[in-house]
Amino acid sequence: MRLTVIRGWIDFAGRASAVLAAVGWGMSIAGLMVSSQTAFELLNGMGAGDLAYNPMVDYWLRMTAFAFTAIGVQFLVVAIWWRRFSSWAWAGAIFQLIGGIILLTTANKLALTSGNYQADVLFCLSTGLLMLTSLIVGHWIDRLSLAKKDKRSAHMSRE
Asked: Which residues contact 40 (CB under 8 A, 6 or more apart)?
């Protein structure tokens, strides 16, 4: 009985990290909804400096916003159906960790002084680590549960 309670809390932690990832990536839907002028004002506010309007950059912004929103939807699916889409959760956790490492090394290489990138790095590494930890611990709890069931079955068959 204890293992099922612990497993429930572990699943909750994994789902919570997937929800955070879904919100973090999914907020990019704003890039699809706002006008070009507002989108460029947002980019300027995020540290892009004085970015003049450029149709190609506008196109790339919308393309990126769509891709990021799709990633957010995938994390939402993982959060809702945690065990059914556990393979997506594994992939998502690894994706977040690799993304965080890439962002951190790129920011250091570019000698970025603005703190904007730090939130992205923290977001990727923390959600990825929590999700991965939940998956690993959940996997071991499942193995322990099966081992206990096997021992009980073997004990009952001897009687």
From this structure: 51, 52, 53, 58
